[in-house]
Write a structure and sequence with these properties.
Blueprint: H1 3-18, H2 25-41, H3 43-54, H4 58-84, E1 87-89, E2 98-106, E3 109-113, H5 121-132, E4 136-140, H6 146-159, E5 165-167, H7 172-180, E6 185-189, H8 192-204, E7 209-212, E8 218-221, H9 227-239, E9 251-255, H10 259-274, H11 290-300, E10 311-312, E11 317-318, E12 321-324, E13 341-347, H12 350-358, E14 365-369, H13 373-381, E15 387-390, E16 411-412, H14 418-423, E17 425-433, H15 448-458, H16 465-483
Helix pairs in contact: 2-4, 3-4, 3-6, 4-5, 9-10
Length: 490
């Protein structure tokens, strides 16, 4: 897109927000209903686009992409009235009689930049929260997943309010121009390097950001783990979408006692899931493009792979691959792999495992397989990550009532369900008081009596009206009776 066309999209969204139509809850509800209609009526086109871009299987397209967005939108519709209600908060004794409350108000125009690995859900889920909170949005789908980007450009204007929901198509040039403009909120999902660029651009305008990044998410397996379940779930989470999942297990740390047993079960599970030749399996996706395939191939080329290791750049294919006894300085252990290659590192005990994890940047997710509660608590208490799952992988993201987000190099801010609504809302504190009584306690001149009473009242946590009548209004009335004066009774 030309710069002028992008500027027109931004300006239209600003005018749409300034018209105040987005403040109307019925408008918000209408947009969410329109989105649901879009997903229902164009589901086939979505699945076709995902298959063209990523060779995504119908199961993954429906469950991970479409159905997840539908569930999010339906939840927002169900809870919208409750989310939008002002929230009462207590006030101190010096603010009585009075009341406090929090209004959740939209920021304005939000820019949402999505990645290519789950190009539908990672654009639309943040948009649901942004619209529910009353923002206008400018969407920037990834140009790498070209068919999905094309789908959004053609479809969004047909269903959504074009005055408040715009789409910008393009690559680095278009994104750079977008970031030169002032937005009221920026929500970015992608890699850490681009996340830094987004944050620098946002800082120029003091724009708040949510950065959903990635990192090397460890999976710890101890000797008490159910290895059959661990192998099934690790293989499922690692190799679905050809390993291109930001919360996929990036590497395994396994205690030496069960290292061989776990490896054998992982090999068996891969064969069960994808057959002897995964390249022919309809349930096995592909790497997004030849460039990323070459990047992954370079990580295993010339290396002894203990399972798998085949690749076909022309077909964007990397075989599910296991690599044992990987040195911590190996290329596989430097950056997030983001592909179907799983390093397996033996550790003596959980102390060594947690020290290995904490010596690196904080990951987006941490996984552990164990049946020992003491071991589980030890790992949780001695590590930090954006999120965690015990005896499970990836599924913590699907828990609608828990926030999902990173920490440190894996990101900042969070979303999911109500949390997405709050992410795109400014919490505006409001104190409302009556004009009577206007006692002179807080006004100069400050006598010793005033200071004593001020300190006394200020130390009370939650005074009720009986207290106010007894200790504030009653003395005031007594002063009037005694002196005939309302002010100066202190």
């Amino acid at each position: 897109m030309e710069d002028s066309a992008i500027a027109a999209v931004i300006e239209r969204a600003k005018k749409g927000f300034n018209s105040k139509k987005t403040l109307n809850i019925e408008w918000r509800r209408g947009q969410l209903l329109a989105l649901l209609r879009m997903l229902n009526e164009t589901k086939t086109q979505i699945c076709d686009a995902l298959h063209a871009d990523l060779r995504q299987t119908p199961f993954l397209s429906n469950v991970a992409e479409v159905d997840g967005v539908v569930k999010e939108a339906e939840n927002a519709l169900r809870e919208l009235d409750n989310w939008c209600k002002p929230e009462a908060r207590p006030v101190g004794a010096l603010m009585k009689p009075g009341k406090g409350f929090i209004r959740r108000e939209p920021f304005g125009v939000a820019l949402i930049i999505s990645p290519w690995n789950y190009p539908i859900s990672l654009l639309l889920k943040p948009m649901i929260g942004a619209l529910a909170a009353g923002n206008a949005v400018v969407l920037k789908p990834s140009e790498v997943s070209a068919k999905c980007s094309e789908y959004f450009v053609k479809t969004i204007p047909k269903y959504m309010d074009s005055d408040c929901v715009g789409v910008v198509e393009g690559g680095v040039k278009e994104t750079t121009f977008l970031l030169q403009n002032r937005f009221d909120y920026i929500f970015y999902t992608g890699n850490t390097n681009v996340g830094k660029i987004v944050m620098r651009a946002a800082a120029e305008h003091l724009t708040p950001v949510t950065l959903e990044l990635g990192g090397k998410s460890p999976c710890i397996v101890d000797e008490t783990a159910d290895l059959d379940v661990a192998a099934n779930r690790i293989c499922w989470g690692k190799f679905m979408n050809c390993g291109q999942t930001c919360v996929a297990p990036d590497y395994v740390l396994v205690t030496k006692k069960v290292e061989d047993a776990l490896f054998k079960k992982l090999c068996s599970t891969i064969r069960t899931f994808y057959g002897e030749d995964p390249q022919q399996c309809k349930d096995y996706s592909r790497v997004i493009n030849p460039r990323h395939t070459q990047r992954l191939a370079a990580l295993i080329k010339g290396k002894k792979c203990d399972f798998g290791g085949k690749f076909d750049v022309d077909d964007c294919y990397i075989e599910p691959t296991l690599v044992r006894n990987v040195d911590s300085g190996d290329a596989l252990m430097q950056d997030e792999i983001f592909g179907p290659i799983l390093p397996i590192l033996p550790v003596a005990d959980l102390k060594e495992a947690t020290e290995f994890v904490t010596a690196r940047e904080k990951p987006l997710a941490l996984y552990m397989f164990s049946s020992n509660e003491k071991n589980i608590q030890y790992v949780i208490e001695n590590t930090t990550s954006g999120g965690a799952a015990i005896n499970e992988v990836v599924m913590q993201v699907a828990c609608q009532h828990m926030p999902f987000g990173g920490v440190g190099y894996s990101g900042m801010g969070a979303y999911n369900g109500h949390c997405t609504f709050k992410t795109f809302s400014h919490e505006r504190s409001v104190l409302q008081r009556t004009t009577w009584p206007d006692v002179s306690l807080r006004y100069p001149p400050y006598t010793a009596d005033k200071i004593w009473w001020f300190t006394k009242l200020n130390s009370l946590k939650a005074p009720n009206m009986k207290f106010i009548v007894l200790f504030v209004l009653a003395p005031a009335l007594a002063a009037v009776v005694a002196t005939g004066k309302m002010r100066g009774w202190w």
